[in-house]
Amino acid sequence: MSAAEVYAALFGGQVDPDWEAYASCREVDADLFFPEERESAGRVKAICRSCSVRDECLATAIRRGESHGIWGGMTARERGGLARSLRDDGFAVPRAARRPA
């Protein structure tokens, strides 16, 4: 998938505010999506791969600046890398507002 296709998939349309109601993870223990530092995220990412609202989830996490957990099938590090890569390619990826300490 090209950078343009990724950007369009994530930010090209209006995100349905009710997307979470359609998420594959809604019936799964939320703790699974916040694995320990060295714990594998493979099982959780498999749930995300089959999810019909994966792009909405990922876009929401990037917009919010979610710094923990698996969102849209990506870890925080992977999401940050994706956002940086898209920005480097000239796409206007929203930067999350800094949260107060």
UniProtKB/TrEMBL annotation:
It is found in: Cytoplasm. Binds 1 [4Fe-4S] cluster per subunit. Following nitrosylation of the [4Fe-4S] cluster binds 1 [4Fe-8(NO)] cluster per subunit. The Fe-S cluster can be nitrosylated by nitric oxide (NO). Upon Fe-S cluster removal intramolecular disulfide bonds are formed. Its cofactor is [4Fe-4S] cluster. Keywords: 4Fe-4S, Cytoplasm, Disulfide bond, DNA-binding, Iron, Iron-sulfur, Metal-binding, Transcription, Transcription regulation. Residues 24-81 form the 4Fe-4S Wbl-type domain. This is Transcriptional regulator WhiB. It comes from Pseudonocardia parietis.
